[in-house]
C-alpha cells in the first residue's frame, strides 16, 4: 500500500418504513450534513510528521462522538481492534424476479436508518434497541456487552461503486468511485472483495466489537446480505507507531488529525464531486497475505532493504530517526543508494493517504464449504468464510497459514492509490513476501447531525 508524504422517495407510500424515510428525506438535505503507506501497497510510510497519538490510558471508558462534520473512525485515534463487514443489498423479490430500483432504494434507506440509530446508541455504550421483526418474547439485545464500557467504539459506513446503479441514482455516485483494477501479481478472492455497503467497527474491546457486529447484522434480514467480513488487531503501542507482522512500524507518515496536511489528504472538496459528498472521503481496503515463514528466514539486511527502513527504530536507511525524511540520493558504504530504488519506501513516496491498517492472523483456516470464490452469505461469525486455497489446508507453509495486513487507507482520491500500487506491483522487493488476496473501495459519506441518517443526502426533495 502506498506511502504518503506529509503533505423513496420511491413510489411505495404504503409501507411505514418508506413513509418515514420520505419525511426524513424532505428535511435532510446535504446542506445540513456538510460542514463538513502500509501493506496494500505500502507497509510503511515515508516520514514527514509524527504519528497520531495512540489510545488514551482510559480507553475502556472513552466515548467517541457519533455526530459531526465527518464520520467517526477516521480522524479518531486508532483503536486496538477492527472488524470490517461488507454487505450487498437484496435484489431478489421473495415472490420471484428482481426488485425494481425504487424498492431497492427504499430498502437501502431503511437499512441506513436502522444502522444510524443503532450506531448512535452503541457508541454511547447503550443497547442498540430491539431487533426489527424479532420473534415474540425474544430478548431485545444479545446482552454480551452488558456491564462493558464503550471502549472507544466507532462505526463508520461506506458505499460501494455498484450501489448507485442498484438504487437508481447513478448521478449521485462520487466521481472517483470506481472498482479498483487488478494489479500485476494480485491473487484476489471473491470471498473477500467488493461490496455495496461497508461497516468498519473499531474499538479497544473485542467483545464490544462483536456486540456491535451482531447488532448491525441483525438489522439486515430482508434488506441486505453479508458478503464478507474480516477482523484485525494491533499491539499495545501507546503513543508510538504500531508494528505490522513483519515487525516494522506501519503508518509513520500519517498526517496528524486537525492539521492542514490531514485535511488535504483525507477530506473531499473537489468541485466536480456531488454536493452531498463534500466533506466525505474514500476508503481503500486490501487484504494482504504475508509469507511469514519466508520473511522470518531472510536476513535482517534483506528485510530492511526490502522496506527501506530499519526494523528496530523505523528510521530510513539514509539515516536519522523514525520521522526523518528519507534521503533517496544518499549513497551507502558501497556507493549504491542507501535506500534501494526498488524498496517499498522508494516506490511509494509521495502518495498521500491516511493509513489505519490492522494485523490479522487466522492461522490454518479450515474449509467449511465449497471453494471457487463463491460469496459466503450465510456464516454467523465475523471471521473468514473460507481459506484462500481450500484444497491445500493440510499442507505446511505460506499457502495454508493465513496472516498479514488488512490495509485500510482513507484518501480524497483513490487514483493516488492506484498509481502507487501499479509501481509497487511492478518492482517492489516486498512482492517476494506478500500477495494481495482481497480488494474493495468505498465512498465514505460525510458526518450527520442528530435526527438525520447517513443516506438522507442521497434523496434530496424534488
Automatic annotation (TrEMBL):
- Superkingdom classification of source: Bacteria
Q: Which organism is it from?
A: Allostreptomyces psammosilenae
Q: What InterPro entries has UniProt attached to this entry?
A: Dimeric_a/b-barrel, Dyp_perox_C, Dyp_perox_N, Dyp_peroxidase, TAT_signal
Give the EC number. Answer: 1.11.1.-, 1.11.1.19
Its top-level enzyme class, in one word, is: oxidoreductase
What name does the UniProt record give this protein?
A: Dye decolorizing peroxidase/deferrochelatase/peroxidase EfeB
Domain Dyp-type peroxidase C-terminal residue range list: 241-447
| Cofactor entry | heme b
Q: Where is the composition biased (Polar residues)?
A: 296-305
Family indicated by similarity? Belongs to the DyP-type peroxidase family.
- Asked whether the keyword Signal is assigned, the reply is yes
- Region annotated Disordered, chain positions: 1-20, 296-344, 371-398
Q: Where is the composition biased (Basic and acidic residues)?
A: 1-11, 374-398
Q: Which GO terms describe its molecular function?
A: heme binding; metal ion binding; peroxidase activity
Q: Which UniProt keywords apply?
A: Heme, Iron, Metal-binding, Oxidoreductase, Peroxidase, Signal
Residues in a coiled coil are: none
Q: Does the keyword Iron apply?
A: yes
Give Gene Ontology CC terms: cytosol
The Dyp-type peroxidase N-terminal domain, residue ranges: 71-233
Amino acid at each position: 500500500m502506498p506511502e504518503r508524504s506529509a503533505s423513496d422517495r420511491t413510489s411505495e407510500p404504503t409501507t411505514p418504513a418508506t413513509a418515514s424515510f420520505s419525511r426524513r428525506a424532505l428535511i435532510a438535505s446535504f446542506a445540513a450534513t456538510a460542514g463538513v503507506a502500509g501493506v496494500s501497497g505500502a507497509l510503511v510510510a515515508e516520514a514527514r510528521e509524527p504519528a497520531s497519538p495512540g489510545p488514551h490510558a482510559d480507553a475502556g471508558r472513552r466515548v467517541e462522538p457519533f455526530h459531526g462534520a465527518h464520520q467517526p473512525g477516521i480522524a479518531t485515534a486508532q483503536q486496538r481492534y477492527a472488524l470490517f463487514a461488507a454487505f450487498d443489498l437484496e435484489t431478489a423479490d421473495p415472490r420471484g424476479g428482481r426488485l425494481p430500483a425504487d424498492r431497492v432504494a427504499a430498502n437501502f434507506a431503511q437499512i441506513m436508518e436502522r444502522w444510524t440509530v443503532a450506531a448512535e446508541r452503541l457508541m454511547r455504550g447503550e443497547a442498540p434497541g430491539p431487533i426489527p421483526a424479532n420473534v415474540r418474547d425474544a430478548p431485545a439485545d444479545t446482552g454480551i456487552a452488558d456491564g462493558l464500557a464503550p471502549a472507544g467504539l466507532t462505526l463508520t459506513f461506506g458505499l460501494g461503486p455498484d450501489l448507485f446503479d442498484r438504487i437508481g441514482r447513478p448521478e449521485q455516485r462520487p466521481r472517483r468511485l470506481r472498482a479498483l483494477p487488478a494489479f500485476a501479481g494480485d491473487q484476489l478472492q471473491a470471498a473477500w472483495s467488493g461490496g455495496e455497503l461497508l461497516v468498519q467497527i473499531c474499538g479497544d474491546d473485542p467483545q464490544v466489537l462483536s456486540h456491535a457486529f451482531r447488532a448491525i447484522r441483525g438489522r439486515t434480514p430482508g434488506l441486505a446480505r453479508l458478503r464478507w467480513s474480516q477482523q484485525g488487531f494491533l499491539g499495545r503501542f501507546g503513543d508510538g507507531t504500531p508494528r505490522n507482522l513483519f515487525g516494522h512500524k506501519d503508518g509513520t507518515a500519517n498526517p496528524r488529525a486537525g492539521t492542514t496536511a490531514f485535511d488535504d489528504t483525507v477530506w473531499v472538496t473537489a468541485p466536480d464531486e456531488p454536493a452531498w459528498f463534500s466533506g466525505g472521503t474514500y476508503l481503500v481496503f486490501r487484504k494482504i497475505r504475508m509469507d511469514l515463514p519466508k520473511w522470518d528466514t531472510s536476513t535482517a539486511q534483506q528485510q530492511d532493504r526490502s522496506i527501506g527502513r530499519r526494523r528496530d527504530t523505523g528510521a530510513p536507511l539514509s539515516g536519522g530517526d523514525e520521522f526523518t525524511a528519507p534521503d533517496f540520493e544518499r549513497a551507502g558504504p558501497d556507493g549504491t543508494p542507501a535506500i534501494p530504488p526498488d524498496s517499498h519506501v522508494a516506490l511509494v513516496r509521495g502518495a498521500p493517504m491516511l493509513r489505519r491498517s490492522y494485523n490479522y492472523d487466522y492461522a490454518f483456516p479450515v474449509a467449511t464449504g465449497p471453494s471457487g470464490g463463491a460469496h459466503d452469505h450465510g456464516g454467523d461469525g465475523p471471521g473468514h468464510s473460507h481459506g484462500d486455497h481450500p484444497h491445500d489446508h493440510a499442507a505446511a507453509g505460506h499457502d495454508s497459514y493465513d496472516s498479514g495486513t488488512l490495509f485500510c487507507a482513507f484518501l480524497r482520491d483513490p487514483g493516488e492509490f492506484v498509481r502507487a500500487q501499479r509501481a509497487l506491483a511492478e518492482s517492489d522487493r516486498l512482492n517476494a513476501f506478500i500477495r494481495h488476496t482481497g480488494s474493495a473501495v468505498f465512498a465514505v459519506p460525510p458526518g450527520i447531525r442528530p435526527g438525520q441518517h447517513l443516506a438522507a443526502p442521497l434523496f434530496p426533495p424534488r
